[in-house]
Every structure is written in structure tokens, then in C-alpha cells.
Amino acid sequence: MSKTLSFPPVYQHAFLQASENLRQSLLLANRYQTPVTPVNYAVWYEYVSGDNQDLVNSIDTRLKKNDPITPEVTQYLYEKYVLMGMPERLSNTNNGLKLVVDNTLENISRVEAAASECNEGLTQSQVKLESCNDIDELKTLVSQILTNTQQITNSSGELKTELTRSTEEIMKLRQELEAVKEMARTDSLTGLLNRGAFDNELQKLCSKGHAFSLVLFDIDKFKRLNDSFGHLLGDKVLQFFASLLKSHSNDIHIAARFGGEELAMLFVHCRLEETFMITEKIREKFAASRLKKKGSHESIGQVTVSAGISTYQNNDTPISLIERADQALYRSKADGRNQVNFI
Ligand SMILES: Nc1nc2c(ncn2[C@@H]2O[C@H](COP(=O)(O)OP(=O)(O)OP(=O)(O)O)[C@@H](O)[C@H]2O)c(=O)[nH]1
Questions:
Q1: Is there a single domain that holds both residue 158 and residue 199?
Q2: pLDDT tens sequence across 231-275
Q3: 22 is in which domain, residue-wise?
Q4: Which of 185, 220, 235 finishes a domain?
Q5: 80-94 pLDDT, tens per residue?
Q6: What is this structure's pTM?
Q7: Which ligand 1 atom is the nearest neighbour of the CA of 219?
Q8: Residues taking part in catalysis
Q9: What is the distance in A from the centroid of ligand 1 to the CA of 170?
Q10: Are 35 and 41 in contact (CB under 8 A)?
Q11: Which domain of life, per UniProt (predicted)?
Q12: Considering 84, 105, 129, which residue would you say is the last residue of a domain?
């Protein structure tokens, strides 16, 4: 298993794979003279694991041009590709919100000051009115009162405009926050839930004790596909398969990228027979798809998927459910692939 692109990053490499990545990362850190700080290590680790294609492309382009990999460059790559620009987006939203609140408070104090000035003016006019019996003095008082009321009308008008602007700004920031929140839950390649979000959903279902089933899908011989047609085409196949899962997901059935070429679905309030039928349908549809290389119309041959199902039983934990689905998936692979099993 590999890393699923998400924020914060989630790594699922097995012990041996992670150790091998460590070895290769250290070699690269040494070759390009980048100190093994946590940031530099994360960048090299993601580079050698090959899971973060955008990061790999960016480093390869630099290396081809003999551009140095300086600490500034690794810091930039880390923020852009490992943290996926999230801290910057959150900080922008935060700063935007601070600005709106500061502006609103400033406008309110301005109106308060104008109101208090107007209040003072009107009180003075009130006192003068009581003893006023001169027509000219009365005219002056009237225009004074008019000026005061005009002032307060203007200030409250300005406040209204400013408050409308602030509300619009706050709505935009709220949308940005929603987008950031959504991005933190989404796998960027497939658009499905990422591993972190999937784990949360699975945990919630287990603690509620609802009836549900977990299906783990693993595309067959995916390495061979990548090796024969390239990683980009492999990505397209993953996206195509994800779209099949998406078409079977809804408000209650959840589809997610489990890790690497493994995808998962949670079928909620769905009995084993029904889950099995839907999973079979997905498997058949995928096997029947005649996928072609873009542009050349060259067929890439049949691509299939194996699946394993486990169904929630009392006292199951996310780990025990995943283990059973994984065993069922293993059986599907061992029995010849392109099939569904359950345990
Ligand atoms: N294109 C692409 N390949 C990926 C991605 N994530 C993992 N892979 C590749 O998926 C392959 C998985 O290979 P294996 O675990 O050996 O399994 P397999 O070749 O699918 O064979 P079986 O599972 O036994 O049928 C590896 O070559 C990974 O590099 C991805 O996001 N995109």
C-alpha cells in the first residue's frame, strides 16, 4: 500500500517498503546535499515512493535542467505538494476574516462617534428651543437639527453599505473555508474521499453499530499496466474505476481511495447479498470496459478488478473489518483475480 494524497498527509507503506523509501531518500539527500531535516526528508520520501506524481514531475524537471535543489526549493515543494498549499489557504482565509472583522468594528465605532456627536447637537438644540422666540434664531436651530439628523442618516447609510460588503466578504470566506474543508477530505486524483476521511466514516459507522458492509477493490496487475503504458495512463484507469464507484455511491454509500490502486466502498444499511450483487455488477462493468489509449485509439486490453467484502458484526472495529475484507480480497487474487469474495 502507498500514500494517499490528503491533508494532513496519510502514509500507509508497509514496514519493508517504508524502510526502502528511507534508504533511497537518504541517498538522494546525500547526492543533492540537502540536510536531512523533516521537511527535506518528507520531500525525498514522497519523491522516491512515486505516489505524488506532481511532486515527482516538478523535481524531475528541475533535475533535467540541472537546477539546484536548495532548502528554499524543498520548502516550496513541501508546502505546495506535500501540504498541498493548505496552510497558506487557511492562513489567507484567517487573515481575510480578521480584516473583515477589523473593518466592521472600525465602521461601527465611526457611526457610534457620529451618533454621539449628533446626540450632543440635538440635546443642545432642545435646550435652546425651550427659550427661543426669535424667528432667525429658530431658523438657525432648524438648520442645526437638520445637519445633525443628516449626519446620522449618512453614517447609518455608510454603515449599511459597509455591512453589506462585509457580509459578502464573509460569505466568500465561508465558501473558501468549505472548499478547503472539502479538499482536506478529497483524494485529488480520483475525487473520492481520501483515506483520512474514509477512516473517520468507518469509525463513525462502527461506533453506531449500524448494519453495513465494507468492500475493498484492488485493480489487477496494475504494475504491469503502468509498466506497459506509463503511469499517466495508470492514473486514467484509476480515475475511470473511481467514476464507476462514484456512480454507485450516494448520500449513504461511500466511495473512497483506500491507498494506491486500492479503492473502497462502504455500503450502509445494505445486507451482504445486496452488497455482493452491487460489487459483482461493478466488477463486471469494469471488466467489460474496452479502455483505449487517448489519441491513438489503441486498446490497452482487458483490465479487471478483484474485491473483498466484510460485513459489520457486533464488536467489530475498523481494523477487524478491514482485515476481513483484506483476507477476502486476498482470496479473490489467489483464486485467479477478477472476482469477488466475502468473509
Ligand atoms: N498510475 C498509478 N499507479 C499507482 C498509483 N498508486 C499505486 N500505483 C501502482 O500500483 C502498482 C501496484 O502493484 P502491485 O501491488 O505489485 O500489484 P499489482 O501489479 O496490481 O498486482 P496484483 O494486485 O497482484 O494483481 C504499483 O506499481 C504502484 O506503483 C497511482 O496513483 N497511480
A1: no
A2: 889 999 999 999 999 998 887 899 999 988 999 999 999 889 999
A3: 6-84
A4: 185
A5: 888 887 777 778 887
A6: 0.69
A7: 20
A8: 261
A9: 44
A10: no
A11: Bacteria
A12: 84
